[in-house]
Structure formats: structure tokens, C-alpha cells
């Protein structure tokens, strides 16, 4: 199985390499040699199941440009393989830790010329594996969207599994909304929250409808949403992503709960019951995110999920009742028609019957329509 994954990954990389080299009219011989060396070093390893990865991105030190390039990141820069020594220098030997995940640590990296990046270090002693690492690389190489955190490069050398990721300056939505330090920067206004919801909806629409094959994120949550500024955001952490869909079965559901991926409070209840994941599982998580933006509350309230905790109020048609859900820090400075739209979308996204949930394209259109005539423009591609 591992060898098959590596062959598929290598084939995809080489295809992208050929396209890039043709466009740039440069010699790619060294790049192919380096890339084969990286992949061959991973052959013959036993792979373990995924573990939940929760990261926050940022970075620190100098990186030379001697390794090969084979495709381009969101900002047009080439994605390349890095020598371990380069990333050790960039992070000052992994000195400044800026994020912790279930299987990884994230370190600040200085790339030179005033540019920064985040080095995600997948660690086997924390439950990481080459399968987790290569699966995430595979996903990151397939995607390019202004609302998704991009890959700058990677390293698989001497037992280290490192991803160099795009820098997003303002930390996560979770930190901004739920920590004292984040709130000290000021409260996110209603218009900010609406715009952030639109950006993440656009990101998920891209993953579900424009990526080939479709990609299910499986870990949409506020700590995986990184803020560019108060109005724009990027979706991060692709360690739990799934390519394609599970085939529905007529058999009685008997899910293996140890294989359910995601974070409590955000995980699709239908996925929990059946063990079958689909793009509608991400839609469910997005519905929880909408409730988080509306209420200012975390995804869990004691032993209850936010979806359960808000059910009685959010299913009421009375706008005055719905207004009671609002984050009191907003002090009522909210467009009630927009509030009604977001709650309607949240309710639809949280339906028990996953087939009844809307597609992300519909959600994007609904949010855009309620923001007119002055929605925030999308980020440039």
C-alpha cells in the first residue's frame, strides 16, 4: 500500500515538474534526481492511521535556493524540496515553537528578504508517520486557492518529516475570538465575521467542487482558520483530508470510532453514526463555525456541543429570539436580516440527514446575496 501511495505521489509531482519546466524553459535533471531520492527513502515503511492535527501557523531564519522546484505555491513562488540543514538554519534549530498539533510541532522560520514561513514537524513520537506526512503533501500539491494555506516546500531526510508552509500573520480565529490576548486586539465586528465566513465557504467550495478529485477537509474548526486581517482568512491543516468519497452501503452501520477523524463539537453527527464521510461532513462543521461566529462561544459548552446548546433558540422563527444568540460583545451592532440568513444556513448545514444539507456553492451564494451591495471582494488568485 505504501509503495502505491508513493508511486502515485511521485507521478503527480513529476507531471507538475514537467509543466513547470516547460513554462520556465529550464533544465530539470537535478530536480528529478532529488525528488526520486526523497521518495525512495520512504519505501518499505509501515504506515499508521491518521491522528487529529491542530496547528497554528507563523515563523524564523535564512534559507538558500539550491534545491529543486517542481510547481508553484499560491503566491506563485516555486514549491521545492529542502535539505534538512536548510530548515534547521531557517528555524534556528527548531528554536521558536509557535504551534502544537496532535502529531506535530510548528516552528517559526525566517526565509530571508523579510519573508517568513512555518515549519510543521511531523513527529513519530507524537503519533505521526510517513503516511500522514505524504498524504498531506499529496493534498497540498493538488490545491491552490487564496483562502487555503499553501505549501512552500518540504523535507524528508534523516527521519525528519517537515513541511514549510505559507505564513499567515494574525494567528487563528479561535485565538482571536476566545483568548484574552486575541480579544485585546479588539472585538471582531459583525461585518468581519460575515466576511470570514464567506472566505471559508469559498475555500470549502473549491475543495469540494474544483479540486480533482474532490477533497474533504474533515477538520474545519476555528483553530484551523488563520486570519490574514479582520476581513480575510485562510483554511489550514490538511493532515486529515480525504480524497474522494466513501461509497454508501446498505449494511447496518457499525462505524469504527477509532477511525473517525475530526474534532469534538465540529464532527458531523451522521459521520459519527455511520462512519461514512462526505463533503456534507465539512458542511456540518461549517454550520458549527457559523454558530461560533454568531454567538462568540466555543464549539463545546460543558458536555454539550454548541449545535445542541443553541438548538432551541436557533430553530425559532422569531427574530427577537434569534437575536438572543448574538455575541453580547457585539452590543447589538448587527444586521438582523444577515443574522437570519446565517442562522438559516447553520440550521440547514446541521441537519441530521446529511443529504438534506446544502452544497458549499449554495452557501457561498447565500452569504454573498445577503452582503450585497457591498460584499468584500475575494482575495486575488
From TrEMBL:
Residues 1-18 form the signal peptide. Residues 92-379 form the Protein kinase domain. Its EC number is 2.7.11.1. InterPro entries: Kinase-like_dom_sf (IPR011009), PERK1-13-like (IPR047117), Prot_kinase_dom (IPR000719), Ser/Thr_kinase_AS (IPR008271). It is an enzyme of class 2 (transferase). Its main location: membrane. It catalyses: L-seryl-[protein] + ATP = O-phospho-L-seryl-[protein] + ADP + H(+); L-threonyl-[protein] + ATP = O-phospho-L-threonyl-[protein] + ADP + H(+). It is a single-pass membrane protein. Pfam families: Pkinase. Keywords: ATP-binding, Cell membrane, Kinase, Membrane, Nucleotide-binding, Serine/threonine-protein kinase, Signal, Transferase, Transmembrane, Transmembrane helix. GO terms for molecular function: ATP binding; protein serine/threonine kinase activity. One of its GO terms (cellular component) is plasma membrane. It is found in: Cell membrane. This is non-specific serine/threonine protein kinase.
Amino acid at each position: 500500500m505504501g509503495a502505491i501511495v508513493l508511486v502515485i505521489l511521485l507521478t503527480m509531482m513529476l507531471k507538475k515538474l514537467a509543466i513547470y519546466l516547460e513554462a520556465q524553459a529550464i533544465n530539470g535533471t537535478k530536480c528529478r534526481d532529488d525528488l526520486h531520492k526523497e521518495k525512495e527513502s520512504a519505501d518499505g515503511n509501515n504506515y499508521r492511521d491518521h491522528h487529529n492535527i491542530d496547528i497554528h501557523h507563523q515563523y524564523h531564519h535564512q534559507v538558500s535556493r539550491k534545491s529543486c522546484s517542481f510547481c508553484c505555491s499560491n503566491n506563485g513562488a516555486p514549491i521545492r524540496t529542502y535539505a534538512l540543514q536548510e530548515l534547521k538554519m531557517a528555524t534556528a534549530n527548531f528554536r521558536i515553537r509557535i504551534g502544537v498539533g496532535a502529531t506535530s510541532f510548528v516552528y517559526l522560520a525566517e526565509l530571508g528578504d523579510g519573508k517568513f514561513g512555518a515549519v510543521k514537524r511531523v513527529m513519530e513520537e507524537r503519533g505521526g508517520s510517513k503516511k500522514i506526512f505524504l498524504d498531506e503533501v499529496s493534498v497540498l500539491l493538488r490545491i491552490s486557492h487564496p483562502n487555503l494555506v499553501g505549501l512552500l516546500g518540504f523535507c524528508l531526510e534523516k527521519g525528519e518529516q517537515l513541511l514549510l508552509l505559507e505564513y499567515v500573520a494574525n494567528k487563528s480565529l479561535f485565538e482571536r475570538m476566545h483568548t484574552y490576548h486575541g480579544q485585546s486586539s479588539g472585538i471582531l465586528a459583525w461585518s468581519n465575521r460575515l466576511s470570514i465566513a464567506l472566505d471559508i465557504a469559498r475555500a470549502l467550495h473549491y475543495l469540494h467542487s474544483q479540486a480533482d478529485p474532490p477533497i474533504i477537509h474533515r477538520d474545519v474548526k476555528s483553530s484551523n482558520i488563520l486570519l490574514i486581517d479582520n476581513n480575510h482568512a485562510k483554511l489550514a491543516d490538511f493532515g486529515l483530508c480525504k480524497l474522494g468519497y466513501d461509497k454508501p452501503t446498505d449494511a447496518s452501520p457499525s462505524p469504527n470510532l477509532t477511525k473517525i477523524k475530526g474534532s469534538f463539537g465540529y464532527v458531523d453527527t451522521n459521520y459519527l453514526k455511520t462512519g461514512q464521510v462526505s463533503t456534507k461532513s465539512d458542511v456540518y462543521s461549517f454550520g458549527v463555525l457559523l454558530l461560533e461566529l454568531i454567538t462568540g462561544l466555543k464549539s463545546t459548552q460543558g458536555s454539550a456541543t454548541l449545535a445542541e446548546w443553541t438548538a432551541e433558540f436557533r430553530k425559532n422563527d422569531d427574530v427577537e429570539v434569534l437575536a438572543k444568540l448574538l455575541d453580547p460583545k457585539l452590543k447589538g451592532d448587527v444586521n438582523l436580516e444577515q443574522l437570519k440568513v446565517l442562522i438559516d444556513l447553520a440550521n440547514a448545514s446541521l441537519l441530521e440527514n446529511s443529504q438534506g444539507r446544502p452544497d458549499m456553492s449554495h452557501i457561498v451564494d447565500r452569504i454573498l446575496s445577503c452582503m450585497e451591495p457591498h460584499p468584500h471582494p475575494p482575495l486575488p488568485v
